Amino acid sequence: MSCFAERCGVFDAAAAERVQQSVREWGLDQVRVAWCDVHGLLRGKTLMPGALRSAFEDGVGMVSTLMLKDTSDRTALKIFEPGALDAIPGLSGFGRANNLLLLPDPGSFRVLPWAPGTGWLQAQPWFTDATPVSIDPRRALQSALATLADAGYTLMCGLEVEFHIYRITEERLDPAQADWPGEPPAVALIHPGYQLLGEAHADLADAPLAIVRRTAQSLGLPLRSLEVELGPSQVEAVFDATDALTAADQMVLFRNGVRQALRRAGYLASFVCRPPFANIMSSGWHLHQSLLDRSSGHNAFVREAAVGAPDTAQHWLSDTGSAWLAGLLTHARGAALCCTPTVNGYGRFQPNVMAPVAASWGRDHRGAMLRVLGGAGEAATRIENRLGEPMANPYLYIASQIHAGLDGLRRGLQPPRATDAPYEQAPGEHERLPTGLGEAIAEFNGDSVMTQGFGAPLVAAYSAIKRSELARFEQADDPLAWQRREYFSRY
Asked: Which of 117, 308, 394, 429 is deepest in the core (most CB within 10 A)?
């Protein structure tokens, strides 16, 4: 009789045995089986080594309501009420708060450098009838990539992630003050800020940055640089480009890994866009992207020879790159929810702070939403999208780019001319980006390319989760305190 993983078509007995052998050789005490939720957090269960064979063959049970948690960990829908899940086709079984099954990928096995005796496996959820869970964010990216492959392309992504690190001065774990969510710890700066790339500030922050560096490198992540940013306690990590699914996996592993490693050492890493303090600088997540032609292996964005004026996309990008750029612009408003999914993140879209306010592009221009880098004959030609915030789910963020870019390719869209003044556009020249989470939710649901690309179940579930988050924010007596607990203490 076949095991559950065989019925799902993902069982690799030899690879599973190699992991079990590695666990024995390393003398590990436990293995975490982790799944990435809609907010980019890892959830899962910790298994003893003897339970691994069963996990590989028959999965690990996980309560299905985890698929519907908002940023406070409340279930966004009242699943036990009749009809509560009618808006999410195919998920009616969730009304029982039943189990899904997580199947670990043996190829993802790692030993966690900050947690002695602990191994780690990435997993994806399946229904108990061996069908995929359509609202799993990683599966959404896999589906988008499969569609892109059918069109003849592979997406390459490079990550450029800003975040904040603070030294914890008081943990605030008094049970008498517990709340949902709880109060974050009291913190101090690791550097005073306002000295961009200052070597003295980098030296001042060397201890926590060394933890970040060792963690990333020990996990096998392609960390290229690690530096202090402009804001107080703000830093930036830059990674070499790789294929899109690997890049998304690496972002999840990096973000969760550095949080855990730094916390053990007495530091708090926060990927919230705007920490709840005065005089902070917003953090962005800039996503570099290009397409490889699957038949030739060449960068499909590269134009052999420049044509037209320098303020046209065709001067810098191939016809494929120009159409992809146009698709990203056309669907910027619809994709914003996947790129900037929090109430907090929309505070970054302000003039003259190297953050976008409109769906525009520019040649090596950090004020535009899309920054075109490279040019005719340059192998590293790419588009940098500056719309994202570091709390974004990487699978949804990248998948939104694929849906938008593919629409540009299919319809042969052409972008407008480049901007030199992204904050001084004439009315109607470029579409403004959403100014808040509510507007972004509406734009996401009103964009047929996004809704068709992601599918009705995921759109319904993700929208419900985000509406729950927004409703609680709007009801908060103290919006800043709400964001401090909701985001800063947890993400």
From this structure: 394
Q: Is the pLDDT of residue 228 over 70?
A: yes
**Amino acid identity for residue 345 in this structure:** G
Co-location of 59 and 174 in the same domain: no
29-58 pLDDT per residue, tens: 999 999 999 999 999 999 999 999 999 999
Q: Are residues 126 and 175 in the same domain?
A: no
Residues 85-141 pLDDT 10s: 666 655 665 556 678 999 999 999 999 999 999 999 999 999 999 999 989 999 999
| Domains identified in the chain, total number | 2
CA dihedral over 123, 125, 131, 132, signed as positive or negative: negative
Q: Which residues of 85-119 are buried (b: 16+ CB within 10 A; e: fewer)?
A: beebebbeebbeeebbbbbbbbeebbbbbbbeebb
Integer Cα distance of 6 and 4 in angstroms? 5
State phi, psi for 190 to the nearest 5 degrees.
-100, -20
Two tokens at 114? 């900050």
The verdict on 89 and 158 lying in the same domain is: no
Q: Which comes out higher in pLDDT, residue 421 or 208?
A: 208
Judge whether 5 lies within some domain.
Answer: no
108 and 36 inside one domain: yes
